[in-house]
Design goal:
Blueprint (H helix, E strand, L loop, with lengths): L1 E5 L7 H4 L4 H11 L3 H10 L5 E5 L2 E10 L4 E8 L8 H18 L2 E7 L3 H10 L3 E2 L3 E3 L4 E9 L1
Parallel strand pairs: 4-5
Antiparallel strand pairs: 1-2, 2-3, 3-4, 5-8, 6-8, 7-8
Length: 152
């Protein structure tokens, strides 16, 4: 059964690093030259309340809001291969509910997504109702990324 659990420490999700979606690993590298483990650790450490998605003992993803200021947060999600197809509707509903909750904590949510990851771009825009801007060069590799934002 798919569950959402709080992450107590970065070690809770270390197995996810070896099974991260290739598109998300590519995004972390293009933006910051981070390997998957570093992307997970840094995202978790920057978040006030990081969570993980689990199915029994298997970690399917991790997510949270990186705190950039008292009024602004940066939503992030890192998932394992296989999460989008498994329990898809439950995940979609939970992600929308989490964004609604986060908007009460941080009235402005802003981040960037790799334009090559069309699945993530579509999910952010269509399901989570963020405004997704045209891609522009971003990160260390200056590849096309979409800035996305939503305000309460």
């Amino acid at each position: 059964m798919i569950e959402i659990r709080a992450i107590a420490n970065w070690g809770d999700v270390t197995p996810l690093a070896s099974n991260l979606r290739k598109e998300e690993a590519a995004e972390a590298w293009a933006a910051m030259h981070w390997m998957p483990a570093e992307a997970l650790r840094c995202s978790i450490e920057a978040s006030a309340e990081p969570y993980m998605v689990v199915d029994g003992d298997e970690i399917l993803g991790a997510f949270g809001i990186g705190v950039t200021s008292p009024l602004e947060g940066a939503p992030w999600l890192l998932t394992a291969e296989g999460l989008p197809g498994r329990a898809r509707l439950r995940f979609l509903r939970a992600s929308r509910d989490y964004i609604e909750y986060a908007l009460h904590q941080w009235p402005i949510l802003v981040n960037y997504v790799d334009a090559r990851d069309t699945v993530a771009v579509r999910w952010i825009e269509k399901w989570l109702k963020f405004v997704v801007e045209a891609p522009e060069p971003f990160g260390l590799d200056q590849l096309p990324f979409h800035r996305f934002s939503r305000e309460n």
